[in-house]
Amino acid sequence: MIQKIWFTFIWSTIKCGLFFYSKKINVLGKKNIPKKGAVLFAVNHPNGLLDPLYVTTTNKRQNHFLVRAASFKHPFIKKILVSLYLMPIYRVRDGVQQLSNNQEIFEKCHAILKKKETLMIFPEGSHNKKRTVRPLSKGFIRIVFGALEKYKDLEITVVPVGITYQHTSHYPAKVSINYGKPITTRSLYESHPIPKSTRILKEKVQEQLKVLSVHIPDNLEYERILQQLNNAQIDFTEVTKTNEMIEARKFPSKKPPKKNYLKPLLYLIKLNSILPYIIWKKISKNINEVEFIDTFRFSLNLFLCVLFYSIQATIISRYFGSALGLFYLTTSALLIIIYVKLAPTNAKEDTALV
């Protein structure tokens, strides 16, 4: 019970934080989310730990997550992640000897599905900002078929989920979350030999992900197509429209990026958040993977800015009255909302706005 209250509190905090962080969160296909029963969400993975945050805060099911084991190295961080229903999944790069730990994790996943709860898995196996759906690993199918084998009366629904960002690592974020058609697995599992059932389920999920997110085939044409889309200032979060252009190889003419007339407001926000901004600039120099920029920036902004604004509001209240302190806090939040919701998000920018 305590864990559920804690999870709900964190879920609500993150959802509020994403509202302030995102220009627009476009959610499609919510009717495809089963209201009850065992569900496995199979999600593409372009942008670090921000991907599960967007998915879990756009559906009402309480999700359990499988994330890469490297995130669990620090004991304190591990306790927090476990309390939020995150579980580690081990890969070859984590050490061959570590792979045996996956069996225990799979058993936990089977138990979760038996209780008709939900799992969220990223079957591409790693994050990558490339606008292409990469080959899927079979780990999620092993979990599904393992649970079906163990519990003969269990039905598990797989729901592919496509995530597309206007651009990763840039602020404010603009993102599309697209829930695909549910795939029931019991009849598929029982109708064919395991190798064939595995291939069919894998292909069904992969084909949906190519429609639910922007997919540029990863071949010699990839860079040319991406450049043409960027030059045309395409809104990538209009997924269907963008994929139709890619399929037809017909792109609009080149357009100049929209000018950001709100940049002075951004500088004012930075000045008002000077200590969190300095801390972020120092930390950002040590981020080696571009897919983690959004993750760290969002996390730091969510906690440091709230703390910093609260301290400043308290100081103002003490010396100038509570009304002025409340006015400062409200104005600070309003300035962020105005910038985030109204600043342009071009298809490509020279530098990330921090």
Automatic annotation (TrEMBL):
InterPro entries xref list: GPAT/DAPAT, Plipid/glycerol_acylTrfase
Keyword Transmembrane helix: yes
Domain of life of the source: Bacteria
Biological process terms in GO annotation: phospholipid biosynthetic process
Signal peptide: none
Keyword Transmembrane helix belongs to the record: yes
Positions of the Phospholipid/glycerol acyltransferase domain: 39-166
Keywords: Acyltransferase, Membrane, Transferase, Transmembrane, Transmembrane helix
GO molecular function: glycerol-3-phosphate O-acyltransferase activity; glycerone-phosphate O-acyltransferase activity
Pfam families in the cross-refs: Acyltransferase (PF01553)
Transmembrane segments: 300-320, 326-343
UniProt name for this protein: Phospholipid/glycerol acyltransferase
Species assigned in the record: uncultured Flavobacteriia bacterium
